[in-house]
């Protein structure tokens, strides 16, 4: 932990063209909002939703093989909105949360009634067009089988509802082993959480009436949880017993209070509160980094001050550990050895107004940057670029994609997803989905 930090910059040598395996386009009144790979990397699930309000149709869920073959597709009711999705490790179950809203009203002033940036489901769940929590009538979780059949469905009350009753949390926060973690947004943070097995049976439930945690993560074995508050962390087993406690760490980021991360293998936990702290499952500190005053969260753009201080992302595998940080105008990867020493700070190209996504692969070996310039107007075909970097800063490949014209009245949704290991990268923007084979 006391090893000197080595600083390096991105290699700017010309990169080869990435290999696009296939391209799919959804209907003109839908946009792709979420995607997820199965653990094997052989299946890719995609959600496409109407981009604006009022909605004229319901969302669609599609599952593709990496060959591009459509395995199944299912349309949902018009008044339902899909947020997060997750796939069981064997690819035979797909889970997604949904909201059923009573009326689709966008405030006349264009503002939001609810600060969704403080919602533990953010940023994977876009705001419901500025809907207040009271306008979201019901919600829950779907479980689909391997052919797209609904195997079971839970329900939950509106966001902020305090009575537990038979209601279950409705935000899919993790799928691992043979269990599913659900979170329920409260007035500020998390008001309840539950763990279900893949048959829909509740194996753990906890309601929070006063001190709400800012987030939670399920360990890969599905038998214990890491629950995070502003200044401490509790590791709980399925009986609710505290098996470990980490004091003086937590998530104090005022913009993203749930700024914590767990490595895919559950071996490491990362916390961010003015610093980065990496600990093992027993709470032993493995690495820490304090942001210097020369690295503020603010940056200048067009004469205005804007803040970029997103939750750090943690990736790990046999090749080492990587931490992706987006702060101010800087985009940095901290690369550590498998034993969390020999740290290197690697600078990637600075953030710009036209870069929408920066993603780290789960195994920590790659970073994808998605963006376009100028910003597209609805009804136009716009170039889109995906650039892949190694976590050591070398530019690997670039793919120039095209955006199919989309309907007006909604925000352009963009996103991406790596398989684990990082053999494939799925890039989405508006109606378009591309599967890219990485250089590895």
Would you mind describing this structure in some detail?
The chain has a single domain, classed as Methylamine Dehydrogenase, Chain H. Strands 1-28-27-26-25 form a five-stranded mixed beta sheet, with no helix packed on it. A four-stranded antiparallel beta sheet has the order 2-35-34-33, with no helix packed on it. It has a four-stranded antiparallel beta sheet with strand order 3-4-5-6, with no helix packed on it. The protein is built from no helices and 35 strands. About 14% of the residues have low confidence. The chain has 440 residues and is an all-beta fold. A hairpin with a 5-residue loop joins strand 29 and strand 30.
How many helices in DSSP terms?
0
Q: What top-tier CATH class fits best?
A: Mainly Beta
CATH superfamily heading: YVTN repeat-like/Quinoprotein amine dehydrogenase
Q: Ends: how far apart? A: 30 Å
Structural class of the secondary elements? mainly beta
Question: How many DSSP-defined strands?
Answer: 35
* Helix residue percentage: under 10%
Mean pLDDT: 76
Query: What general form does the structure show?
Result: globular
- Give unreliable regions as ranges: 8-14, 103-137, 158-166, 250-259
- How many individual domains? 1
CATH topology: Methylamine Dehydrogenase, Chain H
Q: Strand content of the residues, in percent?
A: over 45%
């Amino acid at each position: 932990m006391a090893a000197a930090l080595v600083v390096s910059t991105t290699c700017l040598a010309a990169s080869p063209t990435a290999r696009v395996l296939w391209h799919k386009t959804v209907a003109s009144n839908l946009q792709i909002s979420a995607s997820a790979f199965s653990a094997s990397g052989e299946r890719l699930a995609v959600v496409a939703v109407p981009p604006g309000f009022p909605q004229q149709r319901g969302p669609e869920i599609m599952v593709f093989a990496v060959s591009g073959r459509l395995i199944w597709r299912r349309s949902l009711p018009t008044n339902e909105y899909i947020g997060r999705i997750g796939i069981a490790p064997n690819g035979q179950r797909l889970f997604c949360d949904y909201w059923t809203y009573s009326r689709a009203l966008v405030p006349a002033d264009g503002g939001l009634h609810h600060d969704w940036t403080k919602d533990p489901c953010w940023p994977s769940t876009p705001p419901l067009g500025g809907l207040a929590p009271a306008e979201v009538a019901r919600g829950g979780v779907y479980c689909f089988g391997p052919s797209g059949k609904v195997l079971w469905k839970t329900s939950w009350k509106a966001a902020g509802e305090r009575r537990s009753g038979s209601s279950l949390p409705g935000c899919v926060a993790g799928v691992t082993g043979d269990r599913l973690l659900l979170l329920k947004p409260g007035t500020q943070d998390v008001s309840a959480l539950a763990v279900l097995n893949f048959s829909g049976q509740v194996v753990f439930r906890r309601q929070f009436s006063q001190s709400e945690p800012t987030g939670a993560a399920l360990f890969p074995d599905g038998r214990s949880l890491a629950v995070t508050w502003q200044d401490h962390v509790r590791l709980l087993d399925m009986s609710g017993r505290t098996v470990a406690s980490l004091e003086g760490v937590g998530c104090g980021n005022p913009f993203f209070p749930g700024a914590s991360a767990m490595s895919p293998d559950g071996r490491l936990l990362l916390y961010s509160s003015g610093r980065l702290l990496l600990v093992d499952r027993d709470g032993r500190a493995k690495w820490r980094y304090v942001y210097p005053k020369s690295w503020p969260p603010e940056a200048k753009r067009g004469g205005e001050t804007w803040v970029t201080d997103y939750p750090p992302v943690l990736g790990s595998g046999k090749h080492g550990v990587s931490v992706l940080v987006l702060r101010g105008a800087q985009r940095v990867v901290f690369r550590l050895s498998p034993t969390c020493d020999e740290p290197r700070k690697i600078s990637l190209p600075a953030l710009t107004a036209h870069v929408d996504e920066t993603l780290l692969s789960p195994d920590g070996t790659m970073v994808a940057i998605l963006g376009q310039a100028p910003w597209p107007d609805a009804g136009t075909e716009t170039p889109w670029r995906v650039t892949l970097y190694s976590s050591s800063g070398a530019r690997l490949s670039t793919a120039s994609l095209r955006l199919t014209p989309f309907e007006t009245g909604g925000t352009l949704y963009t996103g991406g997803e790596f398989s684990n290991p990082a053999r494939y990268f799925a890039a989405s923007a508006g109606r378009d989905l591309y599967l890219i084979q990485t250089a590895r």
